[in-house]
């Protein structure tokens, strides 16, 4: 036998299956074996295994001194059955026997009592009135009992009787919890809660607390038709907030930081009280329209007040702020708590948020379309003559009053519009913007305000801002951020698209239609078409083609709207981080609905402006032709001989009227659009007017005496284009006409000199060919008498020099 026990493997297999008592007896069986084999190594093998079973870790021996002590200078007096597992967590080859002896001395009697089912007076006197300490003792006993697992019968007896004692103990705790909860002794209930949590009985504790909660519901007589004012919603939420705050107090007393019960409670509250509250409050009863409108109109108010009443204004919960960082900073923990509540609310309200975003976008578009449709209906009730004042008395208009303030009013409005967006306090700025808009409409855009409604356009932009701001209050989490940004972008896109298709396009179509139908020859002839004396002449000089004036105001208005859109894009969409301009710039027009809508708007305006200005210039030229026909007198450039001495040397009335028309229309686009468009517009007017003036001169008979008046007219035209319009490409044309007028001043007796002048094309800036100059000369009153000499100089021979062969 002794020989067999000398084999290490056999010896260790025997030892590891012995309980402590049997192991000690085994060591005394054979003195020889004990001296030879059962030494410190076998002891360490046996007891270290038991220490590891109860959760202690093995570490290397640090000191080689003969002094053996417990870890970290712990004294035996410090150790109790409650704290020993907290105090001692490791062992080494020097102290393992001492450490095991400590645990054995503390727990072996408890295990023996459990094994023998001796449960009466189980706990020592000092622990008999403290259930929390009793629960900790039981927990530690069952932990120590793991070291007895090699004694199967003993181990199972301990576990079985432990479970019996534990069940008795738990039922006793529940009974005490019930009594004290009913008496509202929540701190006492909290002690028993902690006991049960020590046993890992979270489900029992949760079930107990949930059984005590009666979740509130919305009164059944609540009627959505009463409206969704903040006051009403707050009054309905107030009982819910009081309910949550009361439970926060109870949960903190019962659970402290032992278990995160608040999260479970608040989720149940949201599911059983809040969601039904939202559904019932936002559900139409059939008498106030449809459910969709009720939901869209009410949800933002309900949501914002939920986040205020049931999140921001909730009492702080210590239990609700349990965190992985274990921070004790009260401010930080308060932030953690309210962020947790905020996130929970948004998780459960997210389906409603997404529903609102979808339905609200559709409703927003319908609302805008309805507003534009109402405006168009209102305008259809007005006659065209009333709308644009195209009556006989108003076929001419005085523009001088509006010119000084036109650019200033526009700048003031756009400046105040810019300041309204992207700032915190908007009340005073909004009032200033409204005042500036009124000035702009009354002064600079008064003639077009019934064709296009800038106030309505501004209102649409404000509604767009309000709807986007409403959407942004739901921008609460990463998974919603992209969706909400897209929805905000879509709202802006809808706004631009509707402004373009349902307001700007109809306005331009109507304005162009009026331009096309405008015919100066169909207007009644009034005294205004004839020269006036003294002060009355001023009204004549300020006449205009009113549809073209209105069209220019329409261009100005659409430019204001485009600038408002650009300002809104920068100050709202970019500033509020709805759009990343760098990412947006990388997209092509087909990848971005917003870019496409904006581009379509700009293209619409550009195309209508090009078409309208072309028609408008034609109508202006028609007006000028009408002036030439009705105001230019035959005697202007061919005065009667008897009146020669009395002719006043000054521009003709026709010339002054024409210059007035040019002055009133050439600058209509200033401040309304870009310089390139203005230059093209002014140059086109200059070229067309030049051609018209040339044709007009070719219809006149001009005497030498009348040439002085013609020169006055040409000087006035040249002065306008050279000093006022200042389009360099046009000036040479009218310089050439000035020089042409000199050919009528040469006396008929100097016909050869006249011929030489015709041949000197340099004098006419290269604008006219010799044939064209010849046509001008033919309008001389004495043409027949000078024709022979002129042609001889021009061609080198006369008719008499020709011989028929």
TrEMBL record:
GO BP term, pick one: Golgi to plasma membrane transport
Domain of life of the source: Eukaryota
One Gene Ontology cellular component: exocyst
Exocyst complex component Sec10-like alpha-helical bundle domain: residues covered: 147-790
PANTHER family (UniProt xref): RECYCLIN-1, SEC10
Full protein name: F-box protein: endocytic membrane traffic, recycling ReCYcling 1
InterPro entries according to UniProt: Sec10-like, Sec10_HB
């Amino acid at each position: 036998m002794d020989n067999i026990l000398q084999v290490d493997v056999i010896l260790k297999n025997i030892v590891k299956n012995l309980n402590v008592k049997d192991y000690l007896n085994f060591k005394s069986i054979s003195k020889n074996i004990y001296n030879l084999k059962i030494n410190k190594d076998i002891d360490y093998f046996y007891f270290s295994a038991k220490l590891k079973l109860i959760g202690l870790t093995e570490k290397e021996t640090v000191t080689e001194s003969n002094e053996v002590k417990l870890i970290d200078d712990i004294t035996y007096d410090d150790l109790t059955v409650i704290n020993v597992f907290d105090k001692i967590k490791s062992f080494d080859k020097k102290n393992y026997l001492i450490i095991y002896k400590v645990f054995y001395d503390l727990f072996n009697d408890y295990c023996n009592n459990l094994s023998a089912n001796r449960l009466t007076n189980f706990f020592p006197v000092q622990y008999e009135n403290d259930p929390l300490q009793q629960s900790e003792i039981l927990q530690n006993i069952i932990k120590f009992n793991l070291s007895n697992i090699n004694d199967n019968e003993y181990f199972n007896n301990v576990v079985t009787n432990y479970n019996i004692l534990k069940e008795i103990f738990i039922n006793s705790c529940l009974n005490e919890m019930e009594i004290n909860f009913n008496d509202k002794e929540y701190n006492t209930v909290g002690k028993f809660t902690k006991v049960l949590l020590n046993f890992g009985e979270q489900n029992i504790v949760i079930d107990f607390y949930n059984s005590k909660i009666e979740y509130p519901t919305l009164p059944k007589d609540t009627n959505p038709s009463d409206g969704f004012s903040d006051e009403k919603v707050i009054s309905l939420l107030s009982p819910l907030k009081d309910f949550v705050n009361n439970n926060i107090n109870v949960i903190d007393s019962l659970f402290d930081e032992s278990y995160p019960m608040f999260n479970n409670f608040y989720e149940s509250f949201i599911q059983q009280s809040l969601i039904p509250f939202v559904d019932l409050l936002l559900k139409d009863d059939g008498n106030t329209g449809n459910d969709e409108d009720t939901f869209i109109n009410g949800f933002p108010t309900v949501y914002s007040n939920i986040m205020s009443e049931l999140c921001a204004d909730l009492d702080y919960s210590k239990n609700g702020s349990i965190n992985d960082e274990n921070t004790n900073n009260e401010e930080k923990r308060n932030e953690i708590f309210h962020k947790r509540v905020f996130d929970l609310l948004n998780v459960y309200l997210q389906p409603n948020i997404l529903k609102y975003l979808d339905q609200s976008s559709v409703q927003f578009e319908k609302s805008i379309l309805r507003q534009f449709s109402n405006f168009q209906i209102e305008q259809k009730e007005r006659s065209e003559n009333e709308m644009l004042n195209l009556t006989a008395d108003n076929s001419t208009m005085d523009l001088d009053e509006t010119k000084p303030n036109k650019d200033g009013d526009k700048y003031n409005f756009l400046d105040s519009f810019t300041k309204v967006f992207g700032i915190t306090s908007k009340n005073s700025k909004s009032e200033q913007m409204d005042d500036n808009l009124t000035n702009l409409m009354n002064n600079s855009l008064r003639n077009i305000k019934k064709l296009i409604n800038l106030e309505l356009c501004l209102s649409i932009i404000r509604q767009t801002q309000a709807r986007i701001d409403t959407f942004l209050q739901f921008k609460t989490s990463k998974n919603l951020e992209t969706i909400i940004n897209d929805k905000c972008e879509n709202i802006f896109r809808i706004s631009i698209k509707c402004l373009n298709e349902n307001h700007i396009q109809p306005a331009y179509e109507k304005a162009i239609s009026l331009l096309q139908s405008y015919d100066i020859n169909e207007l009644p002839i009034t005294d205004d078409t004839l020269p006036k004396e003294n002060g009355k002449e001023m009204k004549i000089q300020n006449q205009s083609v009113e549809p073209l004036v209105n069209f220019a105001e329409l261009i100005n208005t659409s430019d204001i709207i485009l600038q408002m859109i650009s300002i809104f894009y920068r100050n709202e969409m970019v500033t509020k981080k709805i759009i990343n301009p760098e990412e947006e710039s990388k997209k092509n027009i087909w990848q971005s609905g917003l870019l496409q809508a904006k581009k379509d708007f700009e293209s619409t305006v550009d195309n209508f402006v090009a078409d309208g200005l072309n028609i408008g210039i034609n109508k202006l030229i028609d007006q000028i032709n009408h002036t030439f026909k009705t105001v230019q007198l035959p005697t202007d450039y061919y005065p009667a001989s008897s009146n020669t001495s009395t002719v006043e040397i000054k521009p003709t009335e026709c010339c002054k009227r024409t210059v007035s028309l040019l002055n009133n229309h050439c600058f209509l686009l200033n401040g309304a659009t870009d310089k390139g468009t203005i230059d093209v517009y002014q140059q086109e007017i200059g070229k067309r007017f030049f051609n018209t003036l040339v044709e007009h001169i070719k219809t006149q008979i001009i005497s030498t005496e009348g040439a002085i008046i013609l020169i006055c007219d040409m000087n006035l035209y040249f002065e306008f284009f050279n000093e006022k319009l200042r389009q360099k490409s046009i000036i040479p044309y009218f310089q050439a006409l000035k020089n042409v007028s000199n050919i009528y001043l040469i006396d008929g007796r100097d016909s050869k000199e006249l011929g030489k002048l015709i041949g000197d094309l340099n004098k006419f800036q290269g604008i006219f060919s010799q044939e064209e100059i010849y046509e001008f000369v033919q309008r001389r009153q004495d043409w027949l008498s000078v024709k022979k000499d002129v042609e001889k100089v021009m061609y080198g021979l006369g008719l008499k020099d020709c011989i028929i062969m």
